[in-house]
DNA sequence: AGGCGTCGGTCCAGATCGTCCAGCATTTGA
DNA sequence: TCAAATGCTGGACGATCTGGACCGACGCCT
């Protein structure tokens, strides 16, 4: 799926996606046109979804994050989903099996904002909210290695 | 906090962090040294946490994702946290208020792997797992605007 | 008001980088 | 066995980045 060089390139880019082709080339021992070609193919294959920038929500004033479990009332599923998508403070939302239909992450600047935003869903769904106290693991990609499972 | 130019730069970089300084400069109407300087400051201030690459777990064979709520048994909190951090398939973990101590995201290649990984925690914590069926919102940053709250 | 420091900007030139192309080695498949 | 395909390299050339000199706006102090 990925060869060793691809993995090394990705690992470097995960740390700094603005690394120049020349640097990448040096670090993996290829020429820069080869690296350019490999990156192009990784994008084509969809392995690289995007080169992007990770922004610190705190630095923007979002001092609070919450995980919200959302159970739409009967018949309200689509309205609720649309609402969630439209509220930009939802930074992530997964539709899951089980009682809770959605699990979402909410960025807010204050408890007041949290309350205001949840109020906009309150008449269409039951929610339960857990405030995030710490982030032992911040978003990271899955292991790149081809092997089956994390070292046992 | 951020001025309009900063916001525009960030928006461009969120879409493609490899955009050249020259392009950035053109798009916001500055010279490229000024843009370089602004980016440097955004990094210094911690607004930009990293330039990185978004990888598609599916393209790597991780066809399954799950949200796992984890409630360590009495006295096991730290051991459990350490264990979670060490298992690379955990792609995210938040420590939250409420009964569930941790909420984590797990990337796996099969239901079998899911079971194997959860087994490694099973004797130290209660877990409840929800399989992700769809992702209405994939990871996105909070709104960059300085205004209080999403359009009401 | 005038002087001065700072901040953020421009312009320019030398250094660095990316891209295109021709050519070569290795692998693949008919 | 040979032809085509693949993946790489090196070099040339154009594009981009970087650092320095300089400039204007602004706020502050005297």
TrEMBL record, chains A, B:
Top-level lineage group: Bacteria
Cited Pfam families: AsnC_trans_reg, HTH_24
SUPFAM superfamilies, sorted: Dimeric alpha+beta barrel, Winged helix' DNA-binding domain
Protein name, entry field: Transcriptional regulator
UniProt xrefs under InterPro entries: ArsR-like_HTH, AsnC-type_HTH_dom, Dimeric_a/b-barrel, Tscrpt_reg_AsnC-like, Tscrpt_reg_AsnC/Lrp_C, Tscrpt_reg_HTH_AsnC-type_CS, WH-like_DNA-bd_sf, WH_DNA-bd_sf
Keywords: DNA-binding, Transcription, Transcription regulation
Signal peptide region: none
Keyword DNA-binding on entry: yes
TM ranges: none
HTH asnC-type domain boundaries: 2-63
Native species: Mesorhizobium ventifaucium
